[in-house]
Amino acid sequence: MIIASRTTNTLGCASGSWRVWSLADGHVDMPAALLKAPDGGAVGLPRSLAGRDAMVRLSVNCFLLEHAGAGGVLIDCGAGARWEPSMGHLGAAMAEAGIDPASITTVALTHTHLDHINGLLLPDGREAFANLRRIVIARDAVPKFRDEAHLQRFRPLLAPVGDGDAVVDGVRALALPGHAVGHMGYRLDTGDDCVLFCGDVFHVHALQLTRPELTWGYDDNQAVARATRLKLLRDAAAEHIWLAGAHLDRPGIGRVTVDGQGYAFVAAA
Ligand SMILES: [Zn+2]
Questions:
Q1: Residue 192: its pLDDT value, please?
Q2: Ligand 1 centroid vs 108 CA: distance in angstroms?
């Protein structure tokens, strides 16, 4: 994979006949106390994160896959105008990269939490992607999406997928259970590289790579989320797969190597 373009909030990588963009939606600060150790044990946070009011900063990343002849596939679309003002900046990142939102024909959702789906709408309520034809979503996550009344107009576009289903040529859905109902990754094979867009398998970059046993308070099923992360890291290190995570530190894409009991992250740069 070759870095082809970089701005403050965007990174464009070329691989085979694909272009992969990492686009910053922003960041959100959340309590470090949301980190959980297995079986309710002590987390043992570093001193800087141990106080009751200590916060961790999560990047919020979206990813765009472009291929000649195919419309753009956007993986998650950020928080829109419904969360902190520090989020919802996907449109500005796209402008920075020179990407026309009208080129997006498919959005593929990793799950239905608001920091991943609200960017379907602009702050003024208009649709963010004028030529959107399809919203790929895990079959199990469809009821959750339908619960979001403000996104009702998008229901006819929902295209449910299961583990292993093709999204477009070269991209397959990969179930990554534990964080949320129907949490789904997407695996791109460019011929030269494999990139796994893994959604919310990681929340706290600084800790969940070195200590992948730590889970996040908002993981629906802590044990399953932990097992998914451990397997994903083992496989990614063994197969030299690129990982692209919604909350990994910018640019949110890189490779992992085994480092002691945990893993080290080597960001694409
Ligand atoms: Zn998230």
A1: 95
A2: 14
Q: In the structure encoding, which two tokens stand for residue 43, read together?
A: 């987390």
The phi, psi pair for 62, rounded to 5°, reads -120, 160
pLDDT at 69 over 80: no
- Domain boundary assignment for the chain: 2-267
For domain 2-267, give the fold.
Metallo-beta-lactamase; Chain A (3.60.15)
Six-digit token string for 31: 């309590």
Distance from residue 69's CA to the centre of ligand 1 (Å): 30
Q: How far away, in angstroms, is 112 Cα from ligand 1 center?
A: 9
User: Where residue 72 falls among pLDDT bands split at 50, 70, 90?
Assistant: very high
| Number of residues assigned to the chain | 269
User: Which one, of 211, 169, 154, 143, lies nearest residue 67 by Cα?
Assistant: 169
Buried b (16+ CB within 10 A) or exposed e, 196-212: bbbbbbbbbbebbbebb
pTM of the model: 0.97
Return the C-alpha torsion angle 112, 77, 3, 96, nearest 10. Answer: -160
Q: How far, in Å, from the CA of 19 to the mean position of ligand 1?
A: 23
Q: Where are the alpha helices (DSSP H) in the chain?
A: 47-50, 90-97, 114-117, 142-147, 205-208, 222-239
pLDDT digits (tens, 9 = 90+) for 34-46: 999 998 888 888 8
